[in-house]
Design brief:
The protein is of the alpha+beta class. It contains nine helices and seven strands. The radius of gyration is 20 Å and the shape is globular.
Length: about 240
């Protein structure tokens, strides 16, 4: 009985740590707060600037870490902080975590990238986009409220809903309407170096957009294309609709 309980506790602990630190950006956020937060902690804007993500993405990861008991949230004035509204600051909780587990999803992504390179370019891209599309439809199905109210969303509002969902998944996305063309701009790619090594994985991103829009918009969808991407040397990843 004791062995079973210990095993279950160990499994639960590993599961909790994996959930909290499975995302490489979240690990970077935690390590920065732990190593540089000092006794007063760090603001969302300071973390976003250091890690190189949109403040909304930084806040999402910080709140996740706080909810998991790895960071403490403090509010109030800091000596020398100047006038104005007190900032919410995040402080690492001592000894909350001692080590990180192996990143199994990094291994899976790398394996997927290598497997796709063994296929023809067209087949690999089609498969990667379809995987993304299936995941995008599942993401849309998980939205609440009027998100699944077919026929009651304009394309613009559907695009905004997709951008918000992508941001929640680490893409730091925003919608843009330029030259009568709707676009989703991703300031951050959660696929990281794997996408740079295997650019075909960018088709997963495009597929996610197409899959979500197919659920959120009941009109004629048209083409969904990758207009720019970091693996191609661009500053941002852009999906045009």
């Amino acid at each position: 009985m004791g062995t079973t309980t210990t095993s279950a506790a160990f499994t639960a602990t590993v599961s909790a740590i994996t959930d909290a630190f499975g995302d490489p950006t979240r690990r970077s956020v935690y390590l920065f707060v732990r190593d540089r937060g000092g006794e007063h902690g760090l603001t969302t804007s300071a973390v976003a600037a250091e890690v190189g993500v949109h403040p909304n993405v930084a806040r999402h990861h910080l709140d996740k870490l706080a909810a998991g008991g790895y960071l403490e949230v403090r509010t109030g004035k800091v000596a020398g902080g100047g006038a104005g509204r007190p900032s919410k600051r995040y402080l690492a909780i001592a000894d909350a975590v001692t080590e990180f587990p192996v990143r199994s999803d990094d291994l899976v992504l790398s394996l997927l990238g290598r497997a796709l390179t063994r296929m023809s370019a067209d087949d690999a891209e089609a498969m990667a986009e379809e995987v993304g599309s299936e995941y995008g439809r599942a993401m849309a199905a998980g939205l609440r409220g009027d998100a699944l109210d077919h026929g009651h969303r304009s394309m613009r509002s559907a695009i905004q809903a997709v951008a918000d969902a992508l941001t929640a998944h680490g893409f730091a996305a925003h919608a843009e309407n330029r030259d009568d063309q709707l676009r989703i701009i991703n300031d951050h790619c959660p696929f990281g170096d794997v996408a740079l090594e295997h650019p075909v994985i960018c088709a997963v991103d495009r597929g996610m957009v197409r899959g979500m829009l197919s659920e959120l918009y009941d009109g004629e969808l048209g083409a969904v294309t990758t207009e720019s991407s970091r693996p191609a040397g661009d500053t941002f990843c852009t999906t045009a609709v």
